[in-house]
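Journal club side-thread
Mid-discussion, someone asked how the predicted structure for our own chain would compare to the paper's figures. Pasting it here so we can look after the session.
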Amino acid sequence: MTNIFGYILLALLPHCYCMQGKKEVFVADFYDIQENANPEIGKIKTTVTNRSMNVDYHLFREIQPSDRPTYSFEAVEYFGKSRRTRANESFRVCDLTRLIKGNPILKGIFDSVVKYSNLSISCNYKPGFYWVRNLTATSDFWPLGGAYRAKSNFSIRMTVYLDKVNAPRVIILKSKIKFRVVKA
C-alpha cells in the first residue's frame, strides 16, 4: 500500500530536536503500539527492536484513485500535566505529490521514509508486500527544530480510509503509537 503506508510513518518521525544554543541528542522509545487492519483489504505487523521500528503490510487488493484513499493523523505531546497538539491533519493520498512540492518539511519526511522502505509515492496501490526496516526517531534522523523535551510522551493516532463518492467510508487501517522522548 505504497503511499498509504508511508503516510502512517509520517507521524513516526517526531521532531526530537532541542534548540537551546547547542544541539541535544534525543531518541524515541516506543512503548505501546496498537494496530488494526481491515482483514478484507490487508494485514499489518509492527515490531520494535532496539528503538527501531519494523513494519510489514500485506495489501490484498488493488486500491485505485477512484477509491479516494484518505489519511488522517493526530500527534499529541504530553509533558507533565500539559498537553500540546503537534499535528491534526487529514488529506487525500492522491494529493500528496502536490502537497510535497509546496512543503519542504513534508518532502523531507517522505524522503526519509522512502530511504528505509520499499515504498514510493504514487496514486495507485497494487496488491503485494510493503515494508519499512530500522525506522528510528532521533534528533539526527529528522531534526525539524521543535523544542521537544526529554521525558515528553507522544501519542499518535492514524487512520487510513477509502472515501469513495456515494459509498460508505471504509477504514483500511487504524493505528495508535505511543513513545517517549529520552536523551541518548
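Post-session note: The first strand starts at residue 17 and ends at 19.
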